[in-house]
Amino acid sequence: MSTPEKLYEGKAKILYKTEDPDILLTVFKDDATAFNAQKRGSISGKGEMNCAISSYLFQELAASGIPNHFIDRPTATEMRVQALKIVPLEVVVRNIAAGSLCQQTGLTLGTILPYPLVEFYYKNDALGDPLLTRDRLLLLELATPDQIEQLQHLALRVNEMLSAFFQRCAINLVDFKLEFGLDRQQNLILADEISPDTCRLWDQTVNDPNRRILDKDRFRQDLGEVAAAYQLVLERVLTQVTTQ
Ligand code: C5P
Asked: What is the CA radius of gyration of the chain?
């Protein structure tokens, strides 16, 4: 077979074309970056763990009626996905105050929000992925009013399902980032990945505010034991999907 054509290489994944124009191959890497790629590193085994976690979560979401791009996982680090036109937005949902929400609003880390917050960021490295208002989304024609409503609705449904799932894993889903794409019929489909790279996950069985962190904040903040934290998430997700 000829070498597949590389479509795009991101910070944590490579996207290849396949022989089928409707299917792409995502290869998950161990590389890690943070703070708009100012901090770089590698987390041993991350590609495999994120590929597995994302695959299980996408299957759980599909079973709950949330359309997403996952097709299958042909190897440990590869995911076959539906080819979509990616919407250049990062849709963030927050349940507990952390990260940029604390930095930008002064809210104390760990404050439980009275309702989930849905935010839109412009997926644009050169601009540093800025937070967008609804008016700016419309101005830049990044989404129509109807699409904004759909994205908000889908993001909240994903949050409900994932929060309940992680609750059963004794993990708090603090916040997470989603990306969406459009299929040929212009339907919004959940895409990208859902993993400790893209979620904040706090272990409910640990009180220490640093030790409870099971996500990329361990890498961002140099807390150590990054791979061990991802492994723990994978084990709990696996236990959950095999016992339900
Ligand atoms: O940094 P911030 O607090 O805005 O991040 C919110 C959530 O979105 C976190 O779970 C973070 O891991 C995720 N995120 C991401 N990719 C980005 C920005 C944020 O996965 N480029």
From this structure: 17
pLDDT for 219: 98
For residue 3, the CA-to-ligand 1 centroid distance in Å is 33
Query: What span, in angstroms and rounded, lies between the C-alpha atoms of 139 and 131?
Result: 14
CA 101: distance to chain centroid? 17
pTM over the 0.95 mark: yes
Tokens (6 digits) for 47: 């590609």
35 Ramachandran zone, left/alpha/beta (phi>0; psi -120 to 50): left
Extended beta strands in 63-198, E state: 70-75, 78-82, 85-86, 89-96, 112-122, 131-132, 171-182, 188-191
DSSP state of 19: S
Q: How confident is the model at residue 44 (pLDDT cuts 50, 70, 90)?
A: very high
pLDDT tens string 196-228? 999 999 999 999 999 999 999 999 999 999 999
Q: Please name each of the domains of the chain with its CATH number.
A: 6-82 (3.30.200.20), 85-224 (3.30.470.20)
What distance in angstroms lies between residue 27's CA and the mean position of ligand 1's atoms? 21
Which atom, in ligand 1's list, is nearest to the CA of 200? 10
Joined together, the tokens standing for residue 138 give 């419309």
The answer to whether the beta carbons of residues 66 and 101 sit under 8 Å apart is no
Are 94 and 116 in contact by the 8 Å Cβ rule? The answer is yes
Give φ, ψ of 126 to 5 degrees.
Answer: -60, -30
